[in-house]
């Protein structure tokens, strides 16, 4: 039975990696066991996040936030890259990584065009200087000395000075062109990287985080330490540190920060370009007009959405869910309760005159979000894909495949847990460069759960690094949709992403290992082997014995 499940798992992994069939239509197990996996608590938490994101996009609140942040950080290239990364990562915490990247890239392109609008003119100036230099060299060859030695020496001196000036101007233009090209690359490459990093900060930020939550409830039903609040306390500081280090690396690599030229006087060309960029950002912000009532309402409900999810059960203090019976309120109930309000709350400021004057006009107003709009904008295929992943996890559990795999992991029992964290993160980060992060984590999580039981460590100690590591895909355009979107602009090369992404991957692995061995230990109680994992280990041992007995009897 476990062999049949392994065959199906490998076949599904092949389909997922090659995308020979749409990811959303693939599933396993009989329908009576598969169907419930598509309507788990985790799926509805994800759905609530997608609906909230649809409302934000409907009223352009995300664009207003992005432009406002860029106005605050300034227009120097390094500051603009920081502003782009901060904004993209914040949006990616709530929107999908792909949507955040697709929204920010047009803004980046508009700013870049305002910064480097003189590109063609610069080429003409370069060509003109080359012609002048050639002319000077030709004039020098045919200079005839006059009778007056002083005048002749003066002419030679002036000619040499003019040649040096032309040569310096040509060199400056070459440096300026190289600077522009590097800044352009830095802008474009920073946005997808920030989206991938930002998505790890919240449970609803990216699909792998929710798959971890769903598989924890499947494998370890008694595990209650992972929720929106505890995940945010762990992942947000990690995201912030990684984002700042990534910004420093991109800025140094692509010229946003020049370590050797802090006191170098800014050229007039760059000063003019920054002034134009400032005007473009200001102009785009003014086009949005004054803040609408709908935007204010969406922002209020968005803040309520985040605050209520965070404060439901933050673990370090009793949350508001403690007012109800244990297990009565979950993150999904909280999220769905907030987003339901969006479907009837008015998008225009209501008038209450008709309460006091029956003859006053009472016109209907559009709600903040209509169901038709939600149907069109919510990526339902991702929800189906999550269901397929949970169905696969259930198949591994029902067939005994995960236990069988765990029984074959004896050689790894001697590996120190901190080393195991680093190795797991490296392997998964490399694997996800060639496969989608959702498919990657669905394949690896059952193995990591069983490996943790074999090592007698808290399963979260291995499963959390594996989950976050599959979002660290920076080296190839095909690694993630955000990378592909940025690469399709035509200004990036594969070698640009490879050399930048290699160090990003290494930084991510080291920072994740640091986080798991410091503040994550107190948040998720990683220092002990928990009782909820011990129960699963006992059940797994009995199941493994049964599987081995069946195998021996068959032989």
UniProtKB/TrEMBL annotation:
<feature type="transmembrane region" description="Helical">
    <location>
        <begin position="323"/>
        <end position="345"/>
    </location>
</feature>
<feature type="transmembrane region" description="Helical">
    <location>
        <begin position="38"/>
        <end position="56"/>
    </location>
</feature>
<keyword id="KW-0812">Transmembrane</keyword>
<keyword id="KW-0406">Ion transport</keyword>
<feature type="transmembrane region" description="Helical">
    <location>
        <begin position="415"/>
        <end position="448"/>
    </location>
</feature>
<feature type="transmembrane region" description="Helical">
    <location>
        <begin position="500"/>
        <end position="520"/>
    </location>
</feature>
<dbReference type="GO" id="GO:0015141">
    <property type="term" value="F:succinate transmembrane transporter activity"/>
</dbReference>
<comment type="similarity">
    <text>Belongs to the SLC13A/DASS transporter (TC 2.A.47) family. NADC subfamily.</text>
</comment>
<keyword id="KW-0472">Membrane</keyword>
<feature type="transmembrane region" description="Helical">
    <location>
        <begin position="460"/>
        <end position="480"/>
    </location>
</feature>
<dbReference type="GO" id="GO:0005886">
    <property type="term" value="C:plasma membrane"/>
</dbReference>
<keyword id="KW-0915">Sodium</keyword>
<feature type="transmembrane region" description="Helical">
    <location>
        <begin position="293"/>
        <end position="311"/>
    </location>
</feature>
<dbReference type="GO" id="GO:0015137">
    <property type="term" value="F:citrate transmembrane transporter activity"/>
</dbReference>
<keyword id="KW-0813">Transport</keyword>
<protein>
    <submittedName>
        <fullName>Solute carrier family 13 member 3</fullName>
    </submittedName>
</protein>
<feature type="transmembrane region" description="Helical">
    <location>
        <begin position="378"/>
        <end position="395"/>
    </location>
</feature>
<dbReference type="InterPro" id="IPR001898">
    <property type="entry name" value="SLC13A/DASS"/>
</dbReference>
<keyword id="KW-1133">Transmembrane helix</keyword>
<feature type="transmembrane region" description="Helical">
    <location>
        <begin position="76"/>
        <end position="95"/>
    </location>
</feature>
<keyword id="KW-0739">Sodium transport</keyword>
<feature type="transmembrane region" description="Helical">
    <location>
        <begin position="6"/>
        <end position="26"/>
    </location>
</feature>
<feature type="transmembrane region" description="Helical">
    <location>
        <begin position="231"/>
        <end position="257"/>
    </location>
</feature>
<dbReference type="Pfam" id="PF00939">
    <property type="entry name" value="Na_sulph_symp"/>
</dbReference>
<feature type="transmembrane region" description="Helical">
    <location>
        <begin position="187"/>
        <end position="211"/>
    </location>
</feature>
<dbReference type="GO" id="GO:0017153">
    <property type="term" value="F:sodium:dicarboxylate symporter activity"/>
</dbReference>
């Amino acid at each position: 039975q476990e062999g049949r499940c392994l065959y199906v798992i490998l076949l599904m992994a092949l389909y997922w990696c090659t995308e020979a069939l749409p990811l959303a239509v693939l599933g396993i197990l009989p329908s009576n066991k598969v169907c419930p996996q598509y309507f788990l608590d985790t799926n509805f938490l994800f759905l609530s996040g997608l609906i909230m994101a649809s409302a934000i996009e409907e009223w352009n609140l995300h664009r207003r936030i992005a432009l406002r942040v860029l106005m605050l950080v300034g227009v120097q290239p390094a500051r603009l890259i920081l502003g782009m990364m901060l904004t993209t990562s914040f949006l990616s915490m709530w929107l999908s990584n792909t949507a955040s990247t697709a929204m920010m890239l047009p803004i980046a392109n508009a700013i870049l065009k305002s910064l480097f609008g003189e590109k063609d003119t610069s080429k003409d100036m370069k060509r003109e200087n080359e012609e002048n230099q050639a002319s000077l060299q030709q004039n020098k060859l045919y200079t005839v000395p006059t009778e007056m030695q002083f005048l002749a020496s003066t002419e030679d001196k002036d000619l040499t000075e003019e040649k040096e000036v032309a040569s310096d101007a040509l060199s400056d233009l070459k440096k300026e062109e190289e600077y522009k090209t590097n800044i352009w690359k830095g802008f474009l490459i920073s946005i997808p990287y920030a989206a991938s990093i930002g998505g790890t900060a919240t449970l609803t930020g990216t699909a792998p985080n929710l798959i971890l939550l769903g598989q924890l409830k499947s494998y370890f039903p008694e595990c209650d330490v992972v929720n929106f609040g505890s995940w945010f306390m762990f992942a947000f500081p990690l995201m912030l540190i990684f984002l700042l280090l990534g910004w420093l690396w991109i800025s140094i690599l692509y010229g946003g920060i020049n370590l050797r030229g802090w006191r170098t006087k800014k050229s007039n060309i760059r000063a003019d370009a920054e002034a134009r960029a400032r005007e473009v950002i200001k102009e785009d912000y003014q086009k949005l007009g004054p803040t609408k009532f709908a935007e204010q309402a969406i922002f209020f409900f968005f803040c309520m959405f985040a605050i209520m999810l965070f404060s439901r059960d933050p673990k370090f203090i009793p949350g508001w869910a403690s007012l109800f019976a244990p297990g009565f309120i979950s993150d999904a109930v909280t999220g769905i309760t907030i987003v339901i309000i969006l479907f009837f709350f008015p998008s225009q400021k209501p008038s209450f005159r008709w309460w006091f004057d029956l003859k006053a006009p009472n016109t209907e107003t559009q709600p903040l979000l209509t169901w038709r709009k939600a149907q069109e904008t919510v990526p339902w295929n991702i929800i189906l894909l999550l269901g397929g992943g949970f169905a696969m996890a259930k198949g591994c559990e029902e067939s005994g495949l995960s236990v069988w795999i765990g029984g074959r992991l004896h050689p790894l029992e001697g590996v120190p847990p901190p080393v195991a964290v680093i190795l797991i993160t490296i392997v998964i980060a490399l694997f996800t460069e060639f496969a989608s992060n959702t498919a990657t984590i669905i394949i690896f999580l059952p193995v990591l759960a069983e490996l943790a039981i074999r090592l007698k460590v808290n399963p979260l100690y291995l499963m959390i690094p594996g989950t976050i590591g599959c979002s660290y895909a920076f080296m190839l355009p095909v690694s993630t949709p955000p990378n592909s979107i940025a690469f399709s602009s035509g200004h990036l090369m594969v070698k640009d992403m490879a050399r930048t992404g290699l160090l990003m991957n290494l930084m991510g692995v080291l920072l994740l290992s640091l986080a798991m061995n410091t503040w994550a230990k107190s948040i998720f109680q990683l220092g002990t082997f928990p009782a909820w994992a011990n129960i699963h280990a006992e059940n797994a041992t009995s199941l493994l014995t049964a599987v081995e007995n069946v195998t021996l009897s068959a032989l």
